[in-house]
Amino acid sequence: MATIWNKDAEGMSREDIEELQLKSLQTTVKNTYENVPHYNKKFNEIGLYPEDIQYLKDIEKLPFTTKEDLRETFPYGMFAVSPNNIIEIHSSSGTTGKPVVSGYTRSDIDSWGELMARGLTMMGMDEDDILQNTHGYGLFTGGFGVHYGAHKIGLTIIPISTGQTRRQIEIMEDFKATALIFTPSYGLYIAEVAKEEGVNPKKLGLKAIGFGAEMWTEEMRKKIEKSFNAPAYNIYGLTELMGPGVAVECSQQKGLHISEDYFFPEIIDPKTQKTLDEGKKGELVLTSLKREGMPIIRFRTKDITSLDYDKCGCGRTFVRMKRITGRSDDMLKVKGVAVFPSQIEKALLKANDIEPHYQIIVTRPNIMDEIEVKVEATEHLFFDEVKEMINIKNKIGDYIENEIGLRVKVTLVEPKSLPRSEGKAIRVIDKRNLH
Ligand code: DLL
């Protein structure tokens, strides 16, 4: 059987896991009640006291936490420790707009390393490996999370970050990388550029690939595995809870093990908000169990998945979540950046000479995502000079870029040409077919 990083934790019996989870949950609830005014207020509103958590099932009495809570308390309102105990900060999108802040104490950073060390070990990596990490190092959690895990294991990490794709390939060859980390779309792009450069990615001698941060399909995985001639494993995580490493796929490639000593997972019906029976598909809700800097209670991830408590062939006992197949809100991940249609709408509202009718079209023409925003021009503008149209288009492009951090294609269309709807307008057309 393949190596397990922390056999004591990852091989615990269900009974032991649940006992540990209850204790950690009680501590977390008490901690948030006493140290996070936002939670104290929320608990008081429903008359809940930390002593009310007697059994694991009592978690259902606790209120949910949403992205809005985090935005309301921006930037430091969710911290349970004084700011000088926070040694690192990350953010959901390293752009403008309203980011979500995540703060880590020294012990949180250590936990993060532990989680990713477990994950990299699941993929078969050990201290002999040379891992090229193409995730961005910065406010995005991808780069550093993987980095801390690599350090824990003691393998050699190449912190190249995203971009400079031709150089990435050169480095892979020169430094003899044995493992790669990327987002699925960037991975496919690397493979394409490698071929253009006359390098056969199959011959790089890779042992394993870790990929995540955005939705993908089994067909994409097959394509990645075939292109690099190496197995590819799914990494899941989110800034609010830590970053990558919340759950990682093992050698069996049949779902991702959630580190249940650090996170308590639930699946709810996003409409009724009721907890669903074991195995049912719904929205993943996560509670942090050991986090010091920013403990989070019942975070609504909006990610759609299901949980599988069956025994896994790898020997680990932690529950597995299935690959994410959708979202219960309209968040899009484009080029790894979280984008909400409301951000684009906000940017459009700043522009004159356009009507409040728009459509966001997301495509993946080759490998990289593209967004086109179609917006109706006013009659006056539409029959005006071309020069003026170009000016407005550029201005709208700037407003959107300022809001989401990505340059999009703006197309001004004739007044009244976009489809009208009687119910909820269909604002987003995602042609990438990622489900
Ligand atoms: O994407 C953390 C991460 C970095 C995970 C690197 C894996 C590798 P955020 O930018 O906060 O954090 O985005 C979190 O991305 O709620 C999902 O919707 C989506 N997501 C993350 N991992 C996966 C995955 C990082 N493996 C949001 N499959 C999450 C599908 C994913 N979607």
Defining key terms:
single chain, 435 residues, alpha/beta, Rossmann fold, GMP Synthetase, Chain A, domain 3, 2 domains, nine-stranded mixed β-sheet, four-stranded antiparallel β-sheet, 12 helices, 31% helix, binds 5'-O-[hydroxy(phenylacetyl)phosphoryl]adenosine
Low-confidence stretches are none
Tell me the CATH topology of the largest domain.
Answer: Rossmann fold
List of distinct ligands in this structure: 5'-O-[hydroxy(phenylacetyl)phosphoryl]adenosine
Helix content: 25-40%
Amino- and carboxy-terminal Cα gap:
33 Å
Q: How is the largest sheet built, in terms of strand order?
A: 4-3-5-6-7-8-9-14-13
Mind summarizing the main beta sheet? 9 strands, mixed
Structure commentary:
By secondary structure, the protein is α/β, with parallel strands linked by helices. It has two domains: 7-331, Rossmann fold; 337-430, 2-Layer Sandwich (GMP Synthetase, Chain A, domain 3). It contains twelve helices and 21 strands. Helix 2 crosses helix 3 (37-45). The longest helix has 22 residues, at 14-35. The protein is globular, with a radius of gyration of 23 Å. 42% of the residues are buried. Bound molecules: 5'-O-[hydroxy(phenylacetyl)phosphoryl]adenosine (DLL). 5'-O-[hydroxy(phenylacetyl)phosphoryl]adenosine binds at residues 92, 135, 141-142, 212-215, 234-239, 243-244, 301, 303, 324, 333, 338.
